[in-house]
Amino acid sequence: MAELTDKMRKEVRAIIIEFFAEECEVEQSEINDSTHIFDDLDGDSLMFLELIEIFKKKYSLNIELKAIGKYSVKHPVRTVGELLTMQLMIIEHENNITNL
After folding, report:
1. Integer Cα distance of 98 and 6 in angstroms
2. Which string of DSSP letters, residue by residue, matches 33-77?
3. Which of 11, 48, 53, 81 has the greatest number of C-beta atoms within 10 Å?
4. Cβ neighbours of residue 30 under 8 Å, at least 6 residues apart?
5. What is the DSSP letter of 25?
6. What pTM, to 2 d.p., does this model score?
């Protein structure tokens, strides 16, 4: 678990936007918090898994996919902003996100 800083929040946002821009072949400037991952970017759920792996390595996270699945059932992710929120919660709470 990590205490979130403004620097981390900005870094996570930048990584997510850069990831989707590259994977979905769109300009970073076209992506914002309200960008719909599936409708606007033609993204898919495998991209979520790839991003989770990126952040697990970057922040040495101990998080199980089962915990993320339980959290995402209660807090579905459709937009870049929702994904950012979920990823920050994972970084901050790791497996304890199921208790939120």
Report:
1. 24
2. TT-BTTTTT---HHHHHHHHHHHHHHHT----HHHHHHHHHHS--
3. 48
4. 21
5. T
6. 0.91
Q: In angstroms, what CA-CA distances link 94 with 4, 25, 28, 72, 85? A: 12, 30, 28, 13, 13
Q: Report residue 2: phi and psi, to 5°.
A: -135, 150
Helix, strand, coil distribution of the chain in percent, nearest 5: 65, 0, 30
pLDDT tens figures, 34-57: 999 999 999 998 998 899 999 999
pLDDT digits (tens, 9 = 90+) for 60-90: 999 998 999 899 999 999 999 999 999 999 9
pLDDT at res. 17: 97
> Residue 94, by phi and psi: left (phi above 0), alpha (psi -120 to 50) or beta?
left
Are 78 and 36 in contact by the 8 Å Cβ rule? The answer is yes
